[in-house]
Amino acid sequence: MHVPDGFINAPVSAVAGVVAAGAVAVGLRGARRELDEKTAPLAGLVAAFIFAVQMLNFPVAAGTSGHLLGGALAAILVGPYTGLLCIAVVLLMQGILFADGGLTALGVNITVMGVVTTVVAYALFRGLTRVLPRTRRSTTAAAFVAALVSVPAAAVAFTLIYAIGGTTDVPIGKVLTAMVGVHVLIGIGEAAITALTVGAVIAVRPDLVHGARGLAAPLKLRVDGELVDAPAAAEPAPAAARSTRKVWGAGLAAALVLAGFVSFYASASPDGLEKVAADKGIDEKVQEHGAADSPLADYGVKDISDARVSGGLAGVIGVGVTVAVGSGVFWAVRRRRTPEAPETRTPESV
Amino acid sequence: MGAGHAHKLYRHGHSPVHALPPHCKLAAVLCFVVAVVSTPREAVWAFALYAVLLAGVAAVARIRPGFLLKRLVIEVPFVAFALLMPFVVPGEQTELFGVHLSVPGLWGAWNVLAKGTLGVAASVILASTTELRSLLLGLQRLRLPPLLVQIASFMIRYGDVITDELRRMSIARRSRGFEARGVRHWGALAKTAGALFIRSYERGERVHLAMVSRGYTGTMPVIDEVTASRTQWAHAAALPVLALVVCLLGWTV
Predict the structure, then answer these.
(1) What is the CATH number of the domain that holds A191?
(2) Which GO BP terms sit in this record (chain B) (predicted)?
(3) A interface mutation test: which of B120, B151, B220, B247 has the most A CBs within 10 A?
(4) Does B229 touch chain A (CB under 8 A)?
């Protein structure tokens, strides 16, 4: 799913780049809290793991095989921030070294495959583990569902970006159907492998699975023939709760930013589509597709038929607003990070 | 990493392109790709000029065309997508060899193929003329957050180690008569992935302890600061400036 250069137009690529940079900045801040000063070696090794595990081929049937994308797996195993960071680093290195995915499309790739998959997967996983009983099996099941949804979610995000800034006017309904259809299939494989892998790690080292930190039973001591709770050393649960709130916040912010620039931008791109639709009378078909598949498609089509604003102007405004918002977030995060830096270095919670 | 540890992507050489500082090359490639992407697709000749420019750089860097072409294979999945475009994009139809194709679809396919291929070729030239380590130094020089550069350098440094570990596990599986043939064997492969994760994570902890015992405090000392003279910048700027000229011509002509 690595997007090459020239697939998404330059302004949208730039906006996606800003979104990705903001997400990576948030990830850097969060990862430092998740891992302390161990961040660099641990996140680097986990990135190497993701890189290697993407080479592990899973036979599907009759000679075809797929490989893991790893977004959901990383988020569940090492936490959303570190996971996002690892995927971003893997994508960066793949882009620069292996020419896998264009350099200008790096922002799009990180946004789609890093941000969307990890945030969606981890939010779902957290939500599910909170609802389900606290057992190993439910953790595995939550991992399955999270991975299953995260891959089509990335496909939907890609379609959204394609609808805004795609360089070719393929009907969005068709793109969505094709992308989501294919990625639901990929998602099933991803989900099975992710769940099995998480299960395998939980069986051996449950303490390493970030998503299963709540699973550890409290330590009991037998004092005078009676079981007594041992004095708790460090309670991991509050930390997890805090991080979920941050994840939700980040997801909301990302959604707002996306929606913001979608609504500005949707009016810019459809000129060609609208014309084609009018020429060929395919708009009914597209609408059918959209309504049949998901509400998202519905919105996209609605926006397209509503488009009346002159395209270029709306595009410029959209980019401007998003860049302003994005860089604002970036600066806020950066400024808050600088004074905190000496604090994080003290090993207060190991 | 000592000598003889160069990655297989890197082609050792002493050409002027090899000698340029990494951050100049990174900036040049990025600007070149931006220029390529923002060129209108109707200016077919402009893409030919870009290809000539890249071929010139490759010649100066003494990279054989065969090597370059072999590395372009990475693009194949999206080529397949691009080849589908003329059939699925609605619009004005044309007939080519008795097959109905859509004109906007053909333009779209051309756009993706031309820009994608040029981008891949530029990245390949960058990767094959720049050592991994200096590439990371260049990224740091271009103000990428130091923590991100550290993570990337750990990933590069241990990527081969972890991949080798995965390969050894696969050899161990196969030497015990295991062959993954279908869905039923996913469990074993997932256990491999799980074991690999535990090994990677524990290795990370060991590496961290080893580093702490040698005085690591969260930042890496910069030993060899890469610097670029004005002439080097000027040499590196030749490619993107020419590309920019072509791009502007593409918009006006």
Answers:
(1) 1.10.1760.20
(2) cobalt ion transport
(3) B151
(4) no
